[in-house]
Amino acid sequence: MPPVIEFRNVSKIYYRHHTRRFFHRYLMEKWRRGAREPFYALRDVSFEIEEGGSLAVVGANGAGKSTLLSLIAGLSFPDEGQVEVRGRVAGLLELGSGFHPDLTGRENLVVYASLLGLSRRELQDRFDQIVEFSGIGEFLDEPLRTYSAGMILRLAFSTAIHVEADIMLFDEILAVGDQGFQTACFEKIRELREKGCTFVCVSHSADVLKRLCARAIWLEGGRVVRDGPCAEVVEAYRLSAGAHAHIVGTGGG
Amino acid sequence: MQLFRYGFLLRNLIVRDFKIRYRNMSLGIFWSLLNPLVMMGVLSFIFTKIFPSPSIKNFGVFVLCGLVPFNFFAVAWVSGTTSLLNNAALIKRVRMPREAVPVSVVLANGIHFVIQIGLLLAFVLGAGYGVNPNWLWLPLIFGLEVVFVCGLSLASSALDVFFRDVRYVVESTNTVLFWLVPIFYSFAIIPEQYKTVYQFNPVAAVVMACRLILLENRQPPFSILWKLTLVSTVALVLGLAIFRRSKRKFADYL
């Protein structure tokens, strides 16, 4: 059986000096080839994930974690190499994208669910489950601007997880939820994994990653510096990041 | 199945857009009616009192036939153009059929268009013109205009991601078109050599057809119909092609 996610020598390049003057830059690039300075958000990244696998991605800010997720999600496309993703992807890449503060929780839920690809029938069948899992209760018909960050997370996460996609992506989102909700989420994720759902998670919380994922890759400057069992890689990253912080700390003092 | 999903998404996005606009407003939907009424009042004052045009009777209704299709065109095109930028978070973070963003914004404006058409028909009846069988042409004419604006907006919203100037080009074009569409003058006074050009402008064609149907009880001529159909279809096909070609890069530029 082919892997559900496959990266083969993938690079994603951005160009520096991105000003707002696109047209001007466009002309400059046409006339003076090679004048632009490439910046590799990801460089020569290769890995595979089998069905039901779970991958944690760690690395400092700007290491390329979010770029990696948006390539898997099919939101952007590689400049070099190939990305192959087999199955329906649902991601929570940012808390509440697509939510509008003036709409009620219920209205936002319906829009968000259809953005994630649920059909009318699917939403009808799962609506009560989504609301129940979110624990929003009586606030469902209140405008979203009255919600706390944790409540928005509950609504978004609960909707995304009920899409029952083949691949789920999470970018640093569980951090806002309280203990009770986190436990419920872990439970639900375990349940989905048993059904064969594949997970990719980005987080700075080592505990969350160790509970959720079996494997981890560590990115630095867009390259994979380590790939292996989650606990091992996350621990190594934490030690190195700690050491780095220490050096910066004394250097600054 | 895929199309079914798309329809559900589109419907939800249209409703969302509509609700966002009117929530927390006490006059709500009446704003939709107020704007054409104010413009009708101003233009009627100028062209009956300052520069009288005696050849046109019922100037108010006459000018409303021009204002309603033009207003929809101008407002829907500008909001369609900026729709991708306004929904940057969505484009960058959620995987969805991205065509749905500009199309839903144009169609949400289509709801206002329908309300304003209702207003127009009320004025037509109030001025003593009766209902006539040629009214059956109206859905086709207005429908083609919506198709045309969808096509334009798909193209201009995609370009606006890369060149943020597009929005201002669109706004300026609208200002110019206000004069070049026969809104407050009649098609009859346009010199012969320019008439063909006017017919290829879909907004002008819609206005002309609208007046023929509502005020003269005549079937819109075939020459207008095929040109309108042609230009709208070409706009939609081209708009989709431009959008499809560039949408892979949206997330990198927003």
Oligomeric form of this entry?
heterodimer
Order of helices and strands of chain B: HHHHHHHHHHH
Q: How far apart are the termini of chain A?
A: 55 Å
Structural class assignment of chain B = mainly alpha
Count of helix runs of chain B: 11
Biggest sheet: strand arrangement of chain A: 5-6-7-3-8-9
Residue fraction in strands of chain B? under 5%
Report the total helices of chain A: 8
How do the helices and strands line up, and which of them pair or pack?
The complex is a heterodimer of chains A (253) and B (254).
Chain A: E1 5-15, H1 22-31, E2 38-49, E3 54-58, H2 65-72, E4 80-85, E5 89-92, H3 105-115, H4 120-134, H5 149-161, E6 167-171, H6 179-194, E7 198-202, H7 206-212, E8 215-220, E9 223-229, H8 230-252
Parallel strand pairs in A: 3-7, 3-8, 5-6, 6-7
Antiparallel strand pairs in A: 1-2, 1-4, 8-9
Helix pairs in contact in A: 3-5, 4-5
Chain B: H1 2-22, H2 30-50, H3 59-86, H4 88-93, H5 100-126, H6 138-162, H7 166-180, H8 192-200, H9 202-216, H10 222-246, H11 250-253
Helix pairs in contact in B: 1-5, 2-3, 3-5, 3-6, 3-7, 3-9, 5-6, 6-9, 6-10, 9-10
Structure, briefly:
The complex is a heterodimer of chains A (253) and B (254). Chain A is α/β, with parallel strands linked by helices.
